[in-house]
C-alpha cells in the first residue's frame, strides 16, 4: 500500500512538472511581427494617425509592428481582411468611424458588421475635418462658400477619400442641411486630394486638419470651416460650419480606433489595451497626434455604445441625403 502511494505521488509530481513545462513553452505574445491593416493608401489622415499610433504601440510592447495599407471601398476592404484573419493578435485593424460604422449603410456588398465581427482594443481620439477651397474658386469665407454654391448649383465639385468615407458624409450632410447642389468627386484615398485642389482640378475638398495644414500654410488652398461644433486649436481662426445660419447645429467628427478579429483571447486583449492606453498617455505621442488635429482619448472610452450611437446617425444621413454607393 505504501509502495502504491509512493508511486502515485511520483506520478503526480511528473504531471505537474510536465504541465509547468508546457506552460513555460508557450511563446510570449508577440514573438513575431504584428500586422496592422489601414484601409486607405498612404498620405491621408487615417494613415497619418494610424502610423503614429502603431509606432508608439510597438515601442510599448517591444514588438515589430508592420503597417499594411489595403485601400478600397472607403476602408472596408482592409477591415474585411482583418475580419477574416485568425484571432491570434497578429493581424489588427486601425481605422475610423467611417469603415467601422458608416460604410455598411452604403455598401450592400459589405459582409461585415464591425460591432459583431471585431473586438475593440481601444478608442484613440476624434478629429474634425476641414472644408478647404482652391485659390481658383474665388471663395475665401464660409459665407462666400454658401452664396457661391447656391448661385451655381451642380457646377462646383468637392473631393473626398471615397464614397462612404467620413469626408463624404461631411459633404453630404452639409449639402442637405444648407440645400446645396455640389458634385462629389470620390478618390481612392486622401493622398492626392490636396495637390489636385491646389492645382484647381476641383473647387473644394474635405481633409483632415493635418493633411490640410501644409497646403494652408503654403497659401495653396483656403480654409473655409471645420466640421466640429467648435473651432479647433490647430486652426483657431477658421470658423466652425455651424457658425453659418444655414448650418446651425452642424457637428460631425471622425474618430479612430484599434480593433482585432472576433475571438481574440482575453489575455491578448488585455495586453493590447494596456499597451495602447500607455501609448496614448505618453506626452510625446499625444503631442504628435495633437499636431495633426486629433483630440486624443483618455484610454478608457467604451467603444460599443459610441458605435451604436453613430450607426443611427450615419443611417439617418444616408436616408435623408439619398447617398448611394
Fold topology:
Layout: H1 2-25, E1 34-38, H2 45-61, E2 65-69, H3 76-83, E3 91-96, H4 97-102, H5 114-117, E4 118-127, E5 130-134, H6 142-151, E6 157-160, H7 166-178, E7 183-186, H8 193-198, E8 204-207, H9 209-217, E9 221-226, E10 254-261, H10 266-280, H11 283-290, E11 295-296, H12 303-321
Parallel strand pairs: 1-2, 1-3, 6-7, 6-8
Antiparallel strand pairs: 3-10, 4-10, 4-11, 5-8, 5-9
Helix pairs in contact: 2-10, 7-12
Can you walk me through this structure?
Helix content is 43%, strand content 18%. The protein is globular and about 70 Å long. The strands form two sheets. A six-stranded mixed beta sheet has the order 2-1-3-10-4-11, sandwiched between helices. A five-stranded mixed beta sheet has the order 7-6-8-5-9. It folds into two domains: 160 residues, Bordetella uptake gene, domain 1 (D-Maltodextrin-Binding Protein, domain 2, 3-Layer(aba) Sandwich); 118 residues, Periplasmic binding protein-like II (D-Maltodextrin-Binding Protein, domain 2, 3-Layer(aba) Sandwich), CATH 3.40.190. It is an alpha/beta fold and 325 residues long. The protein contains twelve helices and eleven strands. About 3% of the residues have low confidence. It starts with a helix and ends with a helix.
